[in-house]
Amino acid sequence: MSRYRLQPTPAQEQVLVEHFGHARYVWNLAVEQHAYWRPGRQSAPGFAEQCRQLTEARAEFAWLRAGPIVVQQQALKDFAQAMANFFGGTHRRPAFRRRGRGEGFRIVAVKPGDVRRVSRNVGEVRVPKVGWVRFRWSRPVPDGVRSFRVTRDAAGRWHVAFAAIPTRSPPPVRARRWVWIEAWPHRRPCRPGRS
Hints:
By secondary structure, this protein is of the alpha+beta class. Strands 2-6-7-1-5-4-3 form a 7-stranded antiparallel beta sheet. A two-stranded antiparallel sheet has the order 8-9. Helix 1 packs across helix 4 and helix 2 runs antiparallel to helix 4. The protein is globular, with a radius of gyration of 25 Å.
């Protein structure tokens, strides 16, 4: 994953902060639903049920409908993965998210034209409902970008991180070496470590 400095305009910053709020709201609702689950009760809703509930909530609340569905559904998808990691024993249980701490959202299904180079040191990425946002092109963007994550750190700096599936390199070719062992009365080739 490659991270670059994002350079949004003040108007774009406002919309990005709203996207952070939508993703945080959906994540916290999912955490709350799972917090109420106890043994003996009906199981907590899964990803498909939560997506259905999100569709109903978007129909009911205009402020939630104003944000992109991709950001909100990806927050649910990330939560489902976090729960799978928790039950797999590799991570802690997902917790509530707070404003200003580790905020971000992820965009998936990035098309080839959604990331472009403007000049030698400037590139642009298309963010839903924001438009083209500039970033500092400090190193080559990986080929085949599949998704990206927009974040803001505690100092107020914006970043975009691109994720791409790396190309698979062929396995190394092992060269076979033969060693001559000179023993009386015969000479014969053999591999190292064998006699």
